[in-house]
Amino acid sequence: DGTWQSAMVRLLLLVHAMALWRSGFALPWRVPASLFWATVSVWVLASVPVGYAQSLERSALRSDRAAARQGTVGSTSRAHLLSAATINRLDPDPLSALAQIEARAQRWKPSFESIERAILRAPARPELRRLAVVIYGRAMALGAGSNATALRRLEHAQALIQLEPMHAVDRFAYAQAALGLGYAKIARSALQTALTLEPNYRVVHLAL
Question: Which of the two residues, 205 and 101, has the higher pLDDT score?
Answer without folding.
Answer: 101
